[in-house]
Amino acid sequence: MVLSHRDLPASLQDFIPRRQNYLDNHTMAENGMPGSSAERFREVGRITGYLQEFNAPVPENNVIPPGYDVQAASVVHLFDDPNGVARWIDEVFLHDFEANVNEEIHPDQHLLAAERLPLEGFSDVSAGLRVVHGTPKGTASSTVVDFRVGRILGVVYVVTLGNYTRLEVTQELGLALERKIVRVVLGDL
What we know:
Number of strands: 8
Strand order of the largest sheet: 1-2-3-8-7-6-5-4
Strand content: 35-45%
Radius of gyration: 16 Å
Oligomer: single chain
Helix content: 25-40%
């Protein structure tokens, strides 16, 4: 149900499939914010999920300038019910990023900012964030969109070197994922 390479917007067509994997609650907790736990995620109603990441090609000169989009991804999560998806968006996605600004969220990775973004076009509950990370190698920003389709949570993100917002392409990616989820649920694929 995640986006395949052919589903990517034109601006991301040169990206290369990188990683795809199931995301159980333990894996999500291990890679989540401080204080994350499989039990907390299950309590919200999350059952499982799946991830598909794409990486940008490295420029010929091996120099990646600020503003260069380095990664894009789509993720789908299955919940017990639609209320669990809405709770996740508020209590996990928005809350955890906003509560951890100025904190070290992983070794040598600090969360410098989490700014809510206005979204348009999604058919149900949705939220967007621009998240800025500081690492020893420099600053990177992620533009992230979460949205609900029934008891499915769709997530897309674009990672950019430096402090940038990629709302337009991330929203385009999210709307493509929303359409794909609806087609799969309706049996049109």
